[in-house]
Predict the structure.
Amino acid sequence: MMAIGKAQTGLNCNIIDVSVNGFKVVEDGEPALSSEDFRKAEQSLVNKNIDLLIDFKQGDEKITIWTCDYSIDYIKINANYIT
């Protein structure tokens, strides 16, 4: 939410929903989880794949972005070879 607001796009952050691995963590720009659901959402972050859904509710466009592992180990592995 901070990055969305700092981007200064003019989006209305008061209506945005954010879900992480199926847990709606932000609804209409506000925290949306009970303490128990927060713990479950937090535990889901140990999974290899993390699904982040941001619903801006300000248009009809959709985009899917796939990223990869940018962990310290990934960077070490890829820094140790010459192409």
Observations:
- The domain at 2-79 is CATH 3.10.20.340 (Ubiquitin-like (UB roll)).
- The helical segments are 2-6, 35-44, 72-79.
